[in-house]
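Handoff note, outgoing to incoming analyst
You'll be picking up this chain. Sequence as last confirmed:
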Amino acid sequence: MKLQSMNCPNCNGQLRKEGEGLICSSCGSAFAIDYDASDVAYQALKKQDEILQKTKGFRIAMAVIVLLVMGVMIFVFVKIFSSFNKRSSDMKNGNGKAAVTATLPENEISKDLILGDTEFLNKAEESAVSLLKSEHKSVKYTDLMWEKNLMTAPKATLDKDPEMVGSYLMTNGLTNYYVMVFKLDFAYEYESEKNIKTMYDCVIMSNLSVSDDGKIESNYQVRTERHTGADLSFMAYDDKDRLYNEVVLGKPGYEVTQLT
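Most recent structure output, in case you need it:
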């Protein structure tokens, strides 16, 4: 930028800036300011620098907010990844402590824990016996012997309370099953004589947890489970080994521990 004269060339009076030009304070003569290309660029850079200075605080605040958001996201991701790795490691090592059941965050059900809890064992057996007695009130003993002789099949009923003949703990690191196997003696009459047919059935309890004092907790809701090898008339198995193979060993991925 070139200023031709800082004083008025007419009267040598003092010049003052007015608008885009200069005015003589004495005689009122007007003068123009001659800008070249470098002056224009300088003014643009100067204006840009002023804008940057004015918005400096805002830009710093935005940068801080972005860094905080990124920090939170990284923290959450690390926590999720760490939790996933720990759970995978527990399951791989057979610990299952991360999720043995929905109510088992820290304690794992074991053989000694179940066998040492007499109250749980008694209540579990009572619930199982009650269920079996309700499901096996009366059975129509259909058999080829009756059909061959055109005889009416007799009705069979339980001769006594179901007798538990085995129990198992099944776990896969996520869920636990307490399985009870019972012997059922069905009585029926043939030619005025009392006969006994022995069958086997099982009862499963899955809602197990461990209390703070190390006791087994459950609402004692039980269910029966049967597969293709079960007799459709008695809704039970005439072969205990087949029941064991189909029901107890029939769930892949479970570790089976014999309790009794």
